[in-house]
């Protein structure tokens, strides 16, 4: 399969392929929320209930991307729905790139300090890498604008602030318990870098196609 075939969108915009991606991401999203079940229950019992929405980071990113795929399959025509589409697509690409990279980086950071990478960890690395890659592949087909990316950046920074202020960040490998400040700084930097990468890919792809 050639790079030009992928870049042309002949495969990526094929409706059968889009439906395959949609159901794969939807099932992955559901599985992600199940994965967070213990932390969701822990947060609900010990923290203000409004914080619960900020706990499952990766599944929510996957949910945004799933909704963005649905908008590709059924493009809206009304102005109101177009605004929702722009917002969902901005959130989809920024959070998918950010949390796709973050999860893999944290697994490898834990391994560098002695944690064992098992089969489940490799599955997480593979699935989260796919999250980041598919977001960067599809951003040029999305209707997202700079305003949508800006809102997504602000939302993700807010999520970072709440995660590390209230201590509801995703549970880390035991080996990283002493490195929470470094993880926090890396997380914020990755949010900024992800938004910048998405903006750059959007601009370059539209210049190329224009």
From TrEMBL:
Transmembrane segments: 16-36, 48-74, 86-110, 122-139, 146-166, 186-204
Protein keywords: Membrane, Transmembrane, Transmembrane helix
Name of the protein this chain belongs to: DUF1405 domain-containing protein
